[in-house]
Design brief:
Layout lengths: L39 E2 L6 E7 L5 E4 L10 E4 L9 E5 L5 E5 L5 E4 L10 E4 L9 E5 L5 E5 L5 E4 L10 E4 L9 E5 L21 E8 L5 E5 L5 E3 L4 E8 L4 E10 L11 E10 L2 E10 L3 E2 L3 E7 L11 E3 L12 E3 L5 E5 L9 H9 L3 E2 L10 E3 L1 E8 L4
Parallel strand pairs: 14-28, 20-26
Antiparallel strand pairs: 1-13, 2-5, 2-13, 3-4, 5-6, 7-8, 9-10, 11-12, 14-17, 15-16, 15-18, 18-19, 19-20, 20-27, 21-25, 22-23, 22-28, 24-25
Length: 394
């Protein structure tokens, strides 16, 4: 039985109080302020330096307080770019690897060489023990589970908690998101690094520009109902101008898919917008959300950029960075000719109690999970430009 907890946060769409959204740990990190990190998520592991993130929370594996001591706590923490969150991964033998913290030079290790469930992960001087060696099992969408050599149990974020400081333990593999991780290569290897700064965006030009960024390890085709689409290699970006910053544009939708594997109409994760709307005292504001009302096929994120001098977009990032295909309920699985799941489809979009809607709701509180889900996913601010990120790290 999975020990992963599920939650959602509920906020009122308070017009008079302003749109504060629903700030949860899934979107903590550098991109919330409209900046991008220089790491690249990888689809395979080779020797190198990595940041390791929980697929469930987007937070980083971290040695507490940057300690160099044997027995120091290993925990999840907000990603901060420090060496306490960087690990050198190198092969040992038989398909296993050691994971050495850059700051301390010490290994991830199961405490006391224990074979018990819930034994803690900490750091220890590397001695070559089987409790210090891991194999990486690909779970789709650039995510991996980590299995100890001495027990074959998975490294597990304890109870799936989103709280910073939560420890990691070993536990039998259950397939839940708190046992899945992404690896960001930070030593110059891996896939092409994604853009930094604002890239192809032209800021403060009185125009609304959308920047599409591919952080997947595979090529992505992007599209929308008021733009010309295109293809993005891993790490590439493309910008599209859609009009002026006061021009009302209603019901605009954007999506993407693995190049050559379009799941078809109403089978995509959607970034939805109403640009420059007038609503009560909110003049020319942008309203936007992520939608899984119809389906999920790719992790997706929206990052708004304020008009010059503005602060209304603070906290309005929306992100669902986790892989939702691996554990999609059987009734929702859409497969390609090779039998691979390429979308998780909600065939009863108006029913909050359908298996797929309940699954979407549990996986990400930052998106619409069914057609009437109005309690928190919507965001609003007076923005100029936006990033739409495929396979975001957080």
């Amino acid at each position: 039985m999975s020990r992963m907890t599920v939650w959602r946060c509920v906020s009122l769409l308070g017009v008079l109080g302003g749109m504060t959204g629903c700030n949860v740990s899934e979107v903590e990190g550098a991109e919330e302020s409209g900046t991008l990190e220089s790491a690249a998520i990888v689809g395979s592991i080779v020797e190198g330096d990595y940041v390791i993130r929980s697929a469930m929370t987007g937070k980083c594996v971290d040695v507490a307080s940057g300690s160099t001591a044997d027995g120091a706590k290993v925990q999840q923490w907000d990603c901060n770019g420090s060496n306490a969150q960087k690990f050198h991964i190198s092969p040992t033998s038989g398909g296993y690897w050691k994971i050495i913290n850059i700051a301390s030079g010490k290994s991830l290790d199961i405490m006391g060489n224990s074979t018990e469930q819930n034994a803690k992960v900490h750091q220890w001087s590397y001695l070559g023990g089987n409790n210090q060696q891991f194999k990486f099992v690909g779970r789709g969408n650039n995510q991996f589970s980590l299995h100890l050599r001495h027990t074959d149990m998975a490294v597990d974020l304890y109870w799936g908690s989103a709280v910073s400081g939560t420890e990691y333990v070993q536990y039998p593999y259950t397939g839940t998101a708190n046992q899945h991780y992404t690896f960001d290569r930070v030593d110059g290897g891996g896939t092409t690094p994604p853009p930094s700064g604002t890239g192809c965006l032209t800021r403060n030009d009185g125009r609304t520009n959308l920047r599409f960024i591919n952080r997947c390890s595979f090529p992505v085709t992007f599209a929308g109902n008021n733009i010309s689409g295109g293809d993005l290699a891993s790490g590439q970006e493309a910008c599209r101008n859609i009009g002026g910053t006061t021009e009302m544009m209603l019901t605009k939708r954007y999506w993407g898919f693995r190049k050559g594997e379009d799941p078809g109409f109403e089978h995509h994760s959607l970034a939805e917008f109403g640009f420059n709307e007038v609503f009560y005292q909110y003049n020319s504001w942008d309203w936007f959300n992520l939608s899984h009302v119809d389906a999920n096929n790719l992790p997706l994120k929206i990052v708004p950029y304020d008009l010059s001098g503005g602060t209304t977009c603070t906290g309005q990032t929306r992100s669902c960075p986790m892989d939702m295909l691996a554990n999609c309920p059987d009734v929702g699985k859409l497969r390609n000719a090779a039998g691979q799941v390429i979308a998780c489809v909600s065939r009863d979009r108006d029913n909050p109690n359908s298996p797929v809607a309940k699954y979407f709701d549990a996986m990400c509180s930052q998106s619409y999970s069914w057609s009437g889900d109005d309690a928190g996913p919507m965001a609003a601010c007076n923005a100029e430009d936006f990033d739409i990120v495929f396979c975001p790290p957080n």
